[in-house]
Amino acid sequence: MSDYRCPGQDMRFWKPSDVSQVKCPACGTGIEFWKDDPFRRCPKCNKAVVNPRHDLGCAQWCERAEECLATLRSGSDERPVCDRLISAMKDVFGADERRIAHALNVLEHAEDLLDSEDGSPLVVRAAAILHDIGIREAERKHGSAAGRYQEAEGPPIAREIMERMGLDEADIEHVCRIISNHHSDRDIDTPEFRILWDADWLVNIPGAFPLDDKGKLKAVIDKVFKTGTGRERAYELFVGQAAAVPTQGSKER
């Protein structure tokens, strides 16, 4: 297939209305969005801001969307698949901007870790986007968003989304296993799981521990992080120094 895209996906045919300005809810700085940007970082305060006008255009309904956008099965750019997963995740969460922003923050950290850690980019990105997808069903069915309920309710929802998008069964199964363990860390230890685990912790640490207690933060980071890159990033973000060199005999998970 050539690189040709229909006018709906070719930016040369886009109109000025396909670009919008949104104020950062944290600091008020204006952020420019193209219609296919799911989120962007505020250039002033670095907050992840969701694009309220995110629109995949004809790719959301066209029966030839996968062919047009060249999905992962052909070995091409997987960004369109991630955009569709993000759109599906946003549909599930609806007006819950906090959880949408959390998923997108985890995705950004996961993509950063992928630069240095081995793992399937598709599995990592899909798991990051969908890891909390069971929260609303957990709250509806159990009256709680506790981790064990998320792990139970998330995989069926994630599976339906990924099957609808035509992902391979092996990748779907892998992502579902990650989701079913992303709080408990019971019975999976793949590179993709370790990346997702660390990316989730990078987002969660500020809300879970006092950032002024550097000693406690060091102990937490050394204990919970599973990749060297994730540990280094956590030290840089929360401790303000390089990660300690693992002691002799320690083992990366």
Give the helix proportion (percent range): 40-55%
Straight-line N-to-C gap: 41 Å
Rounded average pLDDT:
82
Spatial order of the strands forming the largest sheet: 1-2
Strand content: 5-15%
Name the quaternary structure: single chain
What fold name stands as the CATH topology of the domain at 56-60 and 68-239? Hypothetical protein af1432
Question: Order of helices and strands, N to C?
Answer: EEEEHHHHHHHHHH
Summarize the topology.
Layout: E1 19-23, E2 30-34, E3 39-41, E4 48-50, H1 65-69, H2 79-93, H3 97-114, H4 121-130, H5 135-142, H6 147-164, H7 169-179, H8 191-208, H9 214-224, H10 228-239
Antiparallel strand pairs: 1-2, 3-4
Characterization of this structure:
It contains ten helices and four strands. With 253 residues, the protein is mostly helical. The strands form two sheets. Strands 1-2 form a two-stranded antiparallel ribbon. A two-stranded antiparallel ribbon has the order 3-4. The longest helix has 18 residues, at 97-114. Strand 3 and strand 4 form a beta hairpin. The chain has a domain at 56-60 and 68-239: Hypothetical protein af1432. The radius of gyration is 19 Å and the shape is globular. Residues 70-77 and 245-253 have low confidence and may be disordered. It has helices spanning 65-69, 79-93, 97-114, 121-130, 135-142, 147-164, 169-179, 191-208, 214-224, 228-239; strands at 19-23, 30-34, 39-41, 48-50.
